[in-house]
Amino acid sequence: MVTVSSxxxxxxxxxxxxxxxxLCINGVEQWDxxxxxxxxxxxEEVHSLVIDEDSIIECSSAEGLCEKLNLPF
Amino acid sequence: MKHNRFFIxxxxxxxxxxxxxxxxxxxxxxxxxxxxxxxxxxxxxxxLALSYGELWAASAPIASCLNEIVQYQKIESIGIIAxxxxxSFVSIxxxxxxxxxxxxxxxxxxxxxxxxxxxxxxxxxLVLDETNASVMEKLLPKITKxxxxxxxxxxxxxxxxxxxxxxxxxxxxxxxxGKPETSNNRAACLLFTSGSTGEPKGIRIxxxxxISYVNSIQKIYKPNxxxxxxxxxxxxxxxxxxxxxxxxxxxxxxxxxxxxERHAPGRFIKKHSLTFWFSTPSTIALMxxxxxxxxxxxxxxxxxxxxxxxxxxxxxxxxxxAAPKSRLHNLYGPTEATIAITQTKITKKLLNNVDxxxxxxxPLSGQVAGLCNSxxxxxxxxxxxxxELVVAGNQVTEGYWRDKQSTKSKFISGPNGEETNNTxxxxxxxxxxxxxxxxxxxxxxxxDQVKIMGHRVEISEIETxxxxxTKIPTVAVIxxxxxxxxxxxxxxxxxxxxxxxxxxxxxxxxxxxWYMIPQRVVEVNEWPLNSSNKTxxxxxxxxxxxxxx
Lengths: 73, 549
Known about the structure:
Low-confidence stretches of chain B: 15-20
Number of helices of chain B: 15
CATH superfamily of chain A: ACP-like
Helix content of chain B: 25-40%
Mean pLDDT of chain B: 90
Order of helices and strands of chain A: HHHH
Largest interface: A-B, 25 and 23 residues
Strand content of chain A: under 5%
Helix content of chain A: 40-55%
Low-confidence stretches of chain A: none
Largest sheet of chain B: 7 strands, antiparallel
Number of domains of chain A: 1
Oligomer: heterodimer
Structural class of chain A: mainly alpha
Mean pLDDT of chain A: 89
Structural class of chain B: alpha/beta
Number of strands of chain B: 28
CATH topology of chain A: Non-ribosomal Peptide Synthetase Peptidyl Carrier Protein, Chain A
Shape of chain B: globular
CATH architecture of chain A: Orthogonal Bundle
CATH superfamily of the largest domain in chain B: ANL, N-terminal domain
CATH architecture of the largest domain in chain B: 3-Layer(aba) Sandwich
Distance between the termini of chain B: 47 Å
Strand content of chain B: 25-35%
């Protein structure tokens, strides 16, 4: 089952120990602004996310990703 | 622009470091605006707007309190453990008003790095409020020397907050007034950058260094009090001095971009109708990659300035499309020369005539730039000359804090027989070529320093930490170029170690800030050596390209 945790783990290589609902951009070194871009491009391709200013900011935290993608953590 | 045999720039009698004509306190113009236009907007941060009068009203009691402390105890510097919060701006103004240098320390730095900086900077005052209390609670017991803790919070300090008995808590009296110090020889701030020995190194920037820079910038760009400046740089970065003091010396407003929008600041630019933009090229490169540089996206921008990294011509061209009413300038300068020491105006003609990277241009007013060969001797500056860029002028700082050896090796005497003999030139470590029309063009580094999203990183500092935590000598770090991994990525190689890559990264986190932690750690069984019996970094690059890329 696809979850926000699995996306963060697969795309950003954040280890399972580090995954938490409180994670946000720049909270761990794997999720810096460059990695965020990589994440957005992945979401555009796989989850048909429209990339714009709003979505880039809304998807900047694990909680925001759950809401935007309508997926459990 | 004057052109001597050995240097380019406006040589004049006031340019050496020991002869400050740009004397005074960097806050003097700010205080004039406080007096004459107190209701003008000075700062927007964390959804709060503060006028010049309000910003000074919040800072003055702290300055006054510092003035009282210095009556009976020498204060070398004030540690500000925060970043881009209202209280950090207020603390900076208070420190400058009291004539005591501030030391910005990012609250996200590892505890050991925070302590190392505090000790090396000899900070005897630390600022505490509600926003940094959780960090300070962990930090204070680790500081063995007694320091003053200045409580600047809006409420009374939490009764449960424990301050070790050897420190002294001082609550700021909100009704006290501040009396700015006007000494020109005191430092304004002490900034720490990555150091090759494994410890960050300090650079002391004086009020006069910043005043000289601000004066030059005001002459070139002519900002006015209706301007709205972006604030995106961490306060540990000297470019943040530009944001604050170009805006506040002009009577303009400073808009602090929230942390969660710094990687996509377009919405913020539009919402607040910013007119002055200042960032690293990396910031706008991200926007370009996310396809956010659309035609006329940022119609309010009058000026766009870039600094901190090489700016690609293509990126500049795309920004011109997104901000068509904006004049673009590329700035260059190491922290040792205060913010930026050369600049160039970017025109379509320039972009048509240069290769892939925008030149760094000519020195600012009162600053000079020359070239050294590989033996460290000055060479003639003429069209096509290549060498290490060396700079001098009243923006150039006096050397590294408490580090005579590094100062001696990087701050050198001027060319023999020239008028500049009595001042020190800073060897930038940047390899450049001179073009008579466009000035200097950056070619690369002469050492292993790299820029990671604008952060200056000495690869040897990461290697030193790796040796310390693994206790094995065979370690090496490379930073991969963009084509291999998402760029720039730090890859660490270690010889046979008992630690797993995850454990190693965790240990590194105790010493290094987030942007210096290796993204990947590779254990190497057979260490590659070149013909000189040194680590073969070419082989390591090849390995990354073949196995990871």
